[in-house]
Amino acid sequence: MLNIDKLRETLTTSISSKKLLIAFSGGLDSYVLLHAIVKLNNIFNDFQIRAIHIDHGLQKISAQWSDQCLNICKSLDIDCEIISLGLSIPKGESLEAVAREARYQAFKDVLQAGEVLLTAQHQDDQAETLLIQLFRGAGVNGLAAMPVLSRFGKGHHLRPLLDVSRTSLEAYANFHSLDVIEDPSNQDQCFDRNYLRHDIITRLKQRWPSINAVLSRVAHHQAETKDLLAEYLEEDLPLIKGRREGTLSITKLKSLSAARCHALIRYFLSQKGFLAPSSKKLAHIVSDVLNARDDAMPCVQWQGVEVRRYQDDLYAIPPLSKHDASQCIVWNINQDLYLPSLKRILKVELLNDITGFDKESVDNVEVRFRQGGERIFRAERKHTFTLKKYFQEMHIAPWERDRIPLIYMDNKLVAIAV
Question: 358 φ, ψ to 5°?
Answer without folding.
Answer: -135, 110
